[in-house]
Fold:
Amino acid sequence: METISVSTSIITRKSPDEAGQAQRLQTENNELHEEINRLRAQLNAAEQIAYHDALTGLPNRHGYDRYVAALQTLCHTVEFRASLDNGRGGMGGGLLVVQVDIDHFKSINTMLTHFGGDTVLKEFAGRLARSSRMNATPAKDAAGRCLGSLMVEEYMIRSGMTGMDLVSRWGGEEFFCLFPLCYRDAEAAWTAYDDADKIVQRLMNSIRRDPVMLTVNEPTYETIKHQIIGNPAHYYRDAKLVSNGSKHVALPVSASMGYAVIGWEEFNAHPNDDTAHLFRNVVDLMRRAKETGRNRAVTVRASMHDKNAAIHVFEGRALNKTQMSDMVH
Structure:
């Protein structure tokens, strides 16, 4: 008699209660992720408000403090110090600190009202930001950069900053910029000074490259036309007016700067809660730029307490008549 073997498959199915519980857990999990994303968005928005200037979008004083604290933390690490070891027991380079102050900004507010002044501030801030090293060079050659420079950039981005350089607005027409300068060569100190000069000149050229074009109403247009343009006593006497259906003024904005390079060892010697030390000297230098004619940058290549310190002055590039004519036609 032939024997037939029959194998049976046992299908395990979840009970209705188990299936319902799994579905509920999945729903709760999705809701939890949505809540996390919502809170993260709220946190990002709160950080944007806390650390950035509402008008220009640049970091504010709190953003400046956060940047300095992060940089000090990095600078105390063994890895960063080793990346800048110049073989003489020191760290190559330092931090370039620049104070930038718009010349005769009160005159701009008086001439254009605070609405026009805000427009100038936003344009001015954009020019400074676009002149930082992360924006000034289209392609970065990582192979040609010092390891310390790469470490600063990576650490700052991880800490919530946009890059290794900081361009911040402190209020009014005052801006502070920080540029880490990292080297390993024995002549790092003088290399830092040379590179600092180049960075500052790029900032000045960006500010003065073109006048700021603003839309004005009829009364403002007439006031500028009859009381400001050609007036030898007014700083913005070289402004140009354009009337092509609407009224515009081309304003050649300038700025005064004070800057200095602070060595890494000096930077590390200050307590983490004393960020104001970074600009005490450059404030005096900026004032000297104001007192000696404006539209210039002033620095010293030695200690501020050294009476024999060499004073270096860079004159801002003036807009010539051809540039102004090209801008307003």
